[in-house]
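Record type: monomer structure entry
Structure origin: computed from sequence
Chain ID: A
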Amino acid sequence: MKRREYLTGVAGVGALTAAGVGSVSASTASNHVVGSIPDPEGDDDGPGGYAYPTASEFVDGAYDMTGVTIYDNGDSWTFEVGIAGDFTNSYEFAGGFGVQVLELYIRDPDAGSDVPTSTQGRPGTGVTFEGPWHYLV
């Protein structure tokens, strides 16, 4: 299966976020969209009971992911992620990122047996997946 076919059948791409992230700025006008995963607004309470921290830096919608669009740039991919709330850098972190952290766990059904897999999220996330992932971005 070619990369484009794999991503077009979005089922092979798992996107999980322990927190949301604002739309990633990238020059996407000339890039080819190969997949899109919409997510409805207002579902940013995890499995139903998560609440936002009470500090003012954590604005409503800051962790409400609204979708992921995947672009094929020829020799690389761009993942554009949207959130419902504001993307801020209240703590003035280097690199311009704010309180959100984005992790993309990607499953490649054509990965060889020599490619490591895991069903566990990165340490500290408390995530266990039903199926194995191959790449973490």
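Annotation 1: The helical segments are 3-8.
Annotation 2: DSSP finds one helix and seven strands in the chain.
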